[in-house]
From TrEMBL:
Coiled coil: none annotated. The lineage of its organism: Bacteria, Bacillati, Actinomycetota, Actinomycetes, Micrococcales. This is Histidine phosphatase family protein.
Length: 211
């Protein structure tokens, strides 16, 4: 019989971002107070599982989300650039409809299927698939956790479920501090599941910009 391995894709918690900047890969965006509470809730949710391997995006918000779980499990955290947020040509700008409709920004949105304003979806899937497979191999027969960002996680889930990659960003099922779990039988994906352990903390939370 093939070995069963679970890889949990954890989106980071809420970020302190009062100016609503699309922060993308910009450094220095820490979790908010509520985001830190989300990280603790997720640590409670995952503590006690058969987790043997931890991976995080190098961005500080991801590392801060992983910290409580790593401390409870007493495991080291591997930083992996393959699970970074996607690149975006709007990075650093304030997110608003008026800003997106400016001529210089509209010119960047000529192809929604690639997308023309950022890292191609197929490239996100390629790097995320490689990172997930490495985590699966490291945690074979057990469980691994990767802290990443909304778009990379959604791309990985879409690919795993055989969905088209281009989409309306509002349709992503990947809330703050959510857990998307990919179950493997051997090296093959067997199923995908989704949980929102910190849902009670995000009911009135402002949307996280830059994911």
């Amino acid at each position: 019989m093939s070995e069963r391995t679970l890889v949990h894709l954890l989106r980071h918690g809420e970020v302190h971002n009062p100016d609503k900047v699309l922060y993308g890969r910009l450094d220095g965006f820490h979790l908010s107070e509520r985001g830190r509470a989300m990280a603790q809730v997720v640590a409670d949710h995952l503590h006690g599982r058969d987790i043997t391997h931890l991976v995080s995006s190098p961005l500080i918000r991801a590392q801060e989300t992983m910290a409580p779980l790593a401390e409870r499990l007493g495991l080291p955290v591997t930083l992996d650039e393959r699970v970074l947020e996607a690149t975006n040509r709007f990075e650093g700008q304030q997110v608003s409809l008026a800003n997106l409709l400016r001529p210089k920004n509209l010119a960047k949105m000529h192809n929604i299927t690639k997308p023309s304003w950022g890292e191609p979806y197929v490239e996100i899937v390629e790097r995320m698939s490689a990172a997930v497979d490495a985590a699966r191999a490291a945690g074979t027969g057990h469980e691994a956790v990767i802290v990443s960002h909304q778009l990379p996680i959604w791309m990985m889930r879409s690919a795993a479920e055989g969905r088209r990659l281009w989409h309306d960003p509002r349709s992503r099922e990947c809330s703050l501090a959510s857990v998307t779990t990919i179950a493997f039988d051997g090296r093959e994906i067997a199923s995908v599941s989704y949980a929102e352990p910190a849902r009670h903390l995000i009911s009135d939370a402002t949307a996280s910009v830059g994911a």
